[in-house]
Amino acid sequence: MHIDPAHLISDADALQTLYGSPGEASLKKEVDHVHPHYRSFIEAAPFAILATGGPDGLDASPRGDPAGFVVVEDEKTLLLPDRRGNNRIDSLRNILADPRVAMLFLVPGVSETLRVNGTARISVDPALLARFEMDGKQPRSVLVIDVQTVYFQCSRALLRSKLWDPQTQVPRSALPSVGRILSDLTAGTFDGAAYDRDLPARVAGSLY
Fold first, then answer.
1. How many helices (H) and strands (E) does the chain have?
2. Where are the domains of the chain?
3. Nearest Cα to 118, choosing from 148, 150, 98?
4. pLDDT level of residue 99 (50, 70, 90 thresholds)
5. pLDDT for res 178
6. How far apart are CA 19 and CA 14, in angstroms?
7. Which residues make beta-bridge pairs with 137?
8. CA atoms of 85 and 202, how far apart (whole Å)
9. pLDDT number for residue 97
10. What is the pLDDT of residue 171?
C-alpha cells in the first residue's frame, strides 16, 4: 500500500496541532502511585495485558486469574505471578533487556479500564512464590513492578466495541481452530486435528 508522505505526521508540533490540548480531567487523573480508588480496580480485575519491549521486538501478553491476582503490595509496588504458559517467555526476555512495562486492567462489565506504567524485576524468592500457590502449584516467577504512573482510561473504547454486550459474542466455531491454523501454517506437516482433539483436556489439566 502506498502512503503519500505529504499526509504523514512526522513531528510533535504537527501532532499537537492535529489533536489539540488534552482535557483537564485527562491530566488530573494521572498519579505516581496506586491510589485507593485505583487499587479497587486492580483488585477487581481478573484479566490484564502486560506490554513489554526488547531488542527482539514488542510483546503484549494476556494475564488472567481470579480477581485480585495482581497484588497491590504497597502504593508503589505490584506483584504479578507468572503462571504456566507456552514457555516462549517473550515478556520475561524483554524485561531482562528493558525493565519498562505497561499494564491494562479490565474488569468484566466495567467500561473504564486502568493503566499502570513502571518497571519490573523477575523474582524467584521462595517465600514470594509460595504466596501465589494455586492448586498446589507455585508460579515459576513473580514480577515485582515498581509503579511510576497510574490512571484510568475512559469508557469510549469499550462502549464502541460493545465488549461486554452478550449480543456481540462470537461463536468459537466462526473462526478457524488453533489446530487448523497450525496445520495451514505448516503446510499440513503439523497434525492440527490431533492438536484440536487433545487441547481441551490439555488446557484444563495445565492451568497451573
1. 8, 7
2. 23-161, 170-204
3. 148
4. very high
5. 97
6. 9
7. 134
8. 12
9. 97
10. 96
For the record, the C-alpha cell of 24 comes out as 483537564
Residue 145 β-bridge partners: 78, 120
Give the percent of the chain with pLDDT over 90.
Answer: 99
3-state secondary structure of 204: helix
Which pLDDT band, with edges at 50, 70 and 90, does 9 fall under? very high
CA pair distance 17, 194, nearest whole angstrom: 55
Listed in sequence order, the residues at least 6 apart from 154 whose beta carbon sits closer than 8 Å to its beta carbon are 112
pLDDT band, residue 156 (cuts 50/70/90): very high
CATH code: domain 23-161 is 2.30.110.10
Q: What digits encode the pLDDT tens for the residues 129-146?
A: 999 999 999 999 999 999
- CA-CA-CA-CA torsion for 77, 60, 180, 171, nearest 10 degrees? 70
What end-to-end distance do the CA atoms of the chain give, in Å? Answer: 44
Output the nine-digit C-alpha cell for 73.
Answer: 503490595
Burial class (CB in 10 A: 0-12, 13-18, 19+), 58: exposed
